[in-house]
Amino acid sequence: MQKKVFSRPEGLLDVTTHYCAGCTHGTAHRLVAEALDHFGVRERAVGVAPAGCSVMMYKYFNCDTIEAAHGRALAVGTGIKRARPDLFVFTYQGDGDLASIGLCETMHAANRGESISVIYVNNAVYGMTGGQMAPTTLLCQRTTTTPAGRTVANEGFPLKMAELMANLEGVTYCERAAMYDVKQVRRARKAIFHAFEIQIQHNGFGFVELLSACPTNLKMPPAKAQKWVADEMVKTFPLGVFKDLPPGPSPAPSSAPAALAEEGTAHAV
Ligand SMILES: Cc1ncc(C[n+]2csc(CCOP(=O)(O)OP(=O)(O)O)c2C)c(N)n1
Ligand code: SF4
User: Fold this and answer.
1) Is residue 100 within 6 Å of ligand 2 at its C-beta?
2) What is this structure's pTM?
3) What are 205-227's pLDDT values in tens digits?
4) Closest ligand to 213 CA?
5) In terms of CB atoms within 10 Å, which of 6, 210, 236, 258 comes out highest?
């Protein structure tokens, strides 16, 4: 009998995605779906979708999903997790969504140590809207809004989210991985699995930044775009684990504060 070595995870629906050829959103989706399967949380999982190329992830993931206004995935995720601590909540966000318009929500949810797993796909541009500069655009990188290349004087430095998140006390685990070759995909998979574990076993906030390729807006063929991630992006965004706290008492609120949970004790002010 032939041994089955590759199949579609249950966490992914059997549909064709709209992603461009060589876009690593598809790879990231598969890794998240594998983690949903592995931990058996698919039926109690809620994925919070961003505005961006992955806005239609509800068409691809075989679990409940909800759409947040641009950048507000972690605010929406906080509401879900606090109302229903039994659910498994993950956000899936691009760099424009998480690190630009949603930076405030991102930092505060992390600082509160919400029990949520964050998948942050950093492709150094605004993909969906046609390749404008993102907070993560590299210095000298040409985009439609930095046609001569990003400069420190005009646009400041690329924002390093994994480094920022690691400094927040509420964050339990934070890693930056990539997906430009098989070895890196395996590392990214491990990182996503660990972030899920941090929520499932320790009620903690886990953050995984995934360096990703947007061949369309880089105007490169897929293989060249992957090489660009490996050769150029990694210089600015070094890969590795930035924080991984040992299991301990969770800093995260697991439910609504007791005073508010008891009927009649909450007062309008
Ligand atoms: C309030 C608001 N402002 C702006 C937009 C337009 N918009 C949609 S997606 C996007 C950027 C997405 O870029 P990113 O998060 O990096 O995701 P990618 O498409 O690269 O995966 C912007 C600016 C919007 N939908 N809503
Ligand atoms: S525009 Fe870029 S990020 Fe969006 S689907 Fe295409 S390759 Fe992926």
Assistant:
1) no
2) 0.93
3) 999 999 999 999 999 999 999 99
4) 2
5) 210
Distance CA 114, CA 151 (A): 35
Q: Which residues contact 188 (CB under 8 A, 6 or more apart)?
A: 27, 28, 31, 177, 178, 179, 208, 210
Q: Whose CA is nearest to atom 1 of ligand 2?
A: 127
* Residue 126, phi then psi, degrees to nearest 5: -85, 105
For residue 101, CA distances in Å to 94, 134, 135, 155, 162 come to 11, 10, 10, 16, 17
pLDDT in tens, 39-69: 999 999 999 999 999 999 999 999 999 999 9
Q: Give 3-state DSSP helix, strand, coil % of the chain, rounded to 5.
A: 40, 20, 40
Which runs of E-coded beta strand occur in 134-213? 171-178, 205-211
Does residue 129 have its Cβ closer than 6 Å to ligand 1? Answer: yes
- Please tell me the residue having the least CA distance from ligand 2 atom 6: 20
How close are the terminal C-alpha atoms of the chain, in Å?
69
Ligand nearest to the CA of residue 22, numbered in listed order? 2
Q: Cβ(218) to ligand 2 under 6 A?
A: no
- Segments making up each domain of the chain, as ranges: 25-246
Phi/psi for 29 (5° steps) reads -60, -45
The number of the ligand nearest the C-alpha atom of 24 reads 2
Both structure tokens of 42? 């698919």
57 lines ligand 2 (CB under 6 A): no
Helix, strand, or coil (residue 249)? coil
- 162-199 in b/e burial notation, b at 16+ Cβ within 10 A? bebbbebebbbbbbbbbbbeeebbebbbebbbbbbbbb
- Closest ligand 1 atom, CA of 122? 16
Cα 14 to Cα 116: distance, rounded to the nearest angstrom: 26
Q: What is the CATH number of domain 25-246?
A: 3.40.50.970
